Amino acid sequence: MVIKFKEQFSLGVASAATQIEGGECGHNWNDWYAKGKIKDHSNPARATDHYHLWKEDTDLMAKMKIQHYRLGIEWARICPKEGKVDDAAIAHYREELLYLKEKGIAVLLTIHHFTNPMWFERKGGFTKKENLKDFLDFVELVVNSFGDLVSEYITINEPNVYATNSYYFGEWPPGEKSIRKAVRVMSNMAICHIKAYQLIHHIRKEMGYQDTKVSFANHVRVFDPQKSTNIWHRTCAKLLERLFQGAITEAMTTGNFTWPLKKEKKTSRGEYLDFIAINYYTRSTVSGFADGTKEDAPKNDLGWEIYPEGLIRCTDKIYQLLERPIYITENGTCDNLDTFRSKYIYEHLKVISESKLPITRYYHWCFCDNFEWVEGESARFGLVYVNYETQERTIKTSGKFYTRMIEENGITEEMYKEYVEPQRYHE
Ligand code: BGC
User: Fold this and answer.
1) 330 flagged as catalytic
2) Are 3 and 349 in contact (CB under 8 A)?
3) Which of 10, 257, 301, 355 is most buried (most C-beta within 10 Å)?
4) With a 6 A CB cut-off, is 157 part of the ligand 1 pocket?
């Protein structure tokens, strides 16, 4: 064997509601599209039409032997208006969750993955403390509605990515460029996570369940100085790491709010993760207060450096903060022609299998190509190819490789020769 997976290690796939479901749901990405902000003008109302094709997609997942599925639900669909609940949407998700169970696919449910209903967005979303109750009401509704079917939850996906893209770079809705607001959103989302963590445990306990597991999906990247001998590069790398991920990780994990976040009186110190959830993609090479990329390094189709060791470097830091089992809740790459994805997967699984960290799950991002936020349909991350015109799905070579790994519980010599060896990254 080239790689033999450890005992209790299993493979899954991930997705997010807005990126696959399609539909005019009255959310901030429907609105962002209407404002002409999607680079390739593709419409999230199309996406992969998963809201109608969920059964076919689940069958395909089962055919590919997928063991774990991280999926999201659409807040704007469930609560189309403030204070209003759409029972049909709840019934729809229950049907999907039941079907996944029937197929033997274990679910990890994401409650918030970047998208807000417009009624929430219009009143200031997560920038305002008084709005946080709306999110917590939604959490309560979700657990009351699906708590009998779901024991594992991600409260919020990548609050740092959401806050910076939406409120600092202004590239995502609502398109603001204020560092103060971005920091405030991070703080407020940390409060939301802590409160949601307690709420989910409380509700499920009342329901009689003891197996509840809750975390948030933490987007972490390596920040390395461009020149390790340059003090300015080193200082900027440290600063960016703290601003982007260090402070928020600490706040959400232990309730300790430190600079640039303000001290928080509404929450107390504690342990707010039952497992560590890592979303890892790349490294930033820093020479100033902006994102940079290492020259002469392998890159994906969006220009992101491919740096597998970074996954362990980042995960290790978080494990030092709180020792918990680790799930890689996202890892994947934009490879439009699927010519290096298998190599990418192999290299990331290799560092995982060589590490002593208790990493027990790997969810590949993503199951099928989907609506990649401002990149639209032009950036393909899936194990399954989607023809958006016909909505036909075709398993890619990397998808076949993935199934083989599940069957073999690792990578054999023959698989390595067939899927990995012929592949090359572009520089
Ligand atoms: C997000 C996904 C996104 C992926 C690739 C992650 O940061 O959670 O929604 O599609 O990265 O960009």
Assistant:
1) yes
2) yes
3) 257
4) yes
